[in-house]
Known about the structure:
Layout: E1 5-10, H1 17-30, E2 35-39, H2 49-55, H3 68-92, E3 96-100, H4 103-111, H5 117-134, E4 142-147, H6 150-164, H7 170-173, H8 175-192, E5 195-198, E6 200-201, E7 204-205, H9 208-219
Parallel strand pairs: 1-3, 1-4, 2-3, 4-5
Antiparallel strand pairs: 6-7
Helix pairs in contact: 1-9, 2-3, 3-4, 4-5, 4-8
Amino acid sequence: MSKGKLIILEAGDGSGKATQTRLLYERLMKEGRSVKRVEFPDYEAEGSVLVRLYLGGAFGKRPEDVNAYAASTFFAVDRFASYRTKWKDFYEAGGIVLADRYTTSNMVHQAVKLQNSAERDAFLDWLWDFEFRKLGLPVPDRVVFLDMAPEVAARLIDARARETGTAEDIHEQDKEYLVRCHEAYRMLAERYGWKTVRCSEGGEPLPIETIQEDVWQAVKDIR
């Protein structure tokens, strides 16, 4: 039996990924598709312990305190554990796996730690080989980048933290880092052929329904 499809919704913090992933999942289900939704990091799983320590600041209070290669392995192990225990069989049986973040997040959040373009290219080549060849994780069939302006995303992150009372992680706390990540997202979207969906205009987020329709147009041909 042929393998299934892997669709990734990718974006910086505060860009509405969880909402758009849920809405796309619901739409695919209404279309009669066999769909499973996953999220990375998989915070509830034991495999995410190093990710939680890293984002919580146990290894340093700034993202740059842990080098790109070390931090990437934390997230890759979390993905490997999720794949092997939660969705490998479903995927290999032909189902559609819809993921809120994936290896694509490592490409962005860790590559920005490297200032030299040659070093970044070497890291991206290493990461592709490590996750997709060495660990055997599936290569995405479609990546959709939700392009939310970083200043808009920052306001939404702050509002969410106040509303929920949860502390921002070391990525969310560093607003200059988030700006650099947004620049990297745009660069990598072009490099790897990701579909880009505009999520803000004039300093304000676009309506959720407008974004969702554009997300649907970006993935509806996946069979």
